[in-house]
């Protein structure tokens, strides 16, 4: 089993520009330190229609009301501002930003879990190659490239993004690794409620019993030591 | 293009009890479900999603129905239902089938 950079096709080049946008990094950093409620705020605003900050403050009184702690409120305001910056973009661009933000958040949480790990151990947009197996077309969003504890992660904005194709690709990679006597953990990170993920998975016939799904409630598990490899 | 819509001119009155807030969210969920069902391929998922979140909200309604709701929390639920009412695209309605109940439950002090 070996990892390789994805070929830079036209889609990848356009998407790389979005991934490199400072707004993605800012949102990813804010969300890495956010509470569940603050993450739900970000999800709602980036999904929403209204771009009036006060309207959103009214929808989250525990984050923005008089009883909110000043430090927490400051983070909430930062998340609200970043999320509104995404929401104000056109639908297609907004969708790309949301995906890139979940990837950025995932990478940051993984790095936080093991700060001593070499930077090169966590990568983005990588393929995984196995002897005698044709390479998958789509690269993995995030990979942890550590001997004996390698992980491939796909990131989704919503539970609806969980599809048979995604589940097959992850499970195929896990099985191919096992065939090579290697261990590859496979993880779906979904910036949506566990309940919605469970509903989506319930009718999926694609194999997923060995695929770990980390929903919005459990994102901080990624920031624990070996968080993705469990 | 994101914008303010009719709901801002005629906002939903804030509910005064947890039960009324949960019922308001359930009604908003049902409206989103109807819109989302325009996407034929996702019909079953939408049915399942509406059912799952309705069940969760009904559990809150049953457990805390008569409990008085702080004004700000009532406004929060009314405003999120209004926000969901602005959604006109069926694909986005499917996203909101998950978003609306999460925000409403947070406003009610519940874990989604």
Describe the structure.
- The complex is a heterodimer of chains A (230) and B (112).
- Chain A is α/β, with parallel strands linked by helices and 230 residues long.
- Chain A has two domains: 2-6 and 115-223, 3-Layer(aba) Sandwich (Trna Endonuclease, Chain: A, domain 1); 10-96, no CATH class.
- Chain A has nine helices and six strands, in the order βαααααααβββαβαβ.
- In chain A, strands 1-2-3-4-5-6 form a six-stranded mixed beta sheet, with helices on both faces.
- In chain A, strand 3 (140-144) and strand 4 (150-156) form a beta hairpin.
- Chain B is mostly helical and 112 residues long.
- In chain B, helix 2 (18-36) runs parallel beside helix 4 (71-85), helix 3 packs parallel to helix 5 (90-107) and helix 4 (71-85) runs antiparallel to helix 5 (90-107).
- The A-B interface holds A 36-37, 40, 43-44, 47-52, 55, 58-62, 65, 87-88, 90, 158-160, 192-193, 195-196, 198-200, 202-203, 217 and B 1-5, 8, 42, 44-45, 48-49, 52-53, 56, 70, 72-73, 75-76, 79-80, 83, 86-87, 92, 94-99, 101-103, 106-107, 109, 111-112.
Strand runs of chain A, count: 6
Oligomerization status of the protein chains: heterodimer
Give me the count of strands of chain B: 0
Q: What is the CATH C-level name of the largest domain in chain A?
A: Alpha Beta
Describe the main β-sheet of chain B briefly.
Answer: none
Runs of chain B in which pLDDT lies below 50 for 5 or more consecutive residues are: 1-8
Percent of residues of chain A in beta strands? Answer: 15-25%
The secondary-structure class of chain B comes to mainly alpha
- H/E order of the elements of chain B? HHHHH
Radius of gyration of chain B: 14 Å
Looking at the overall shape, the CATH architecture of the largest domain in chain A is 3-Layer(aba) Sandwich
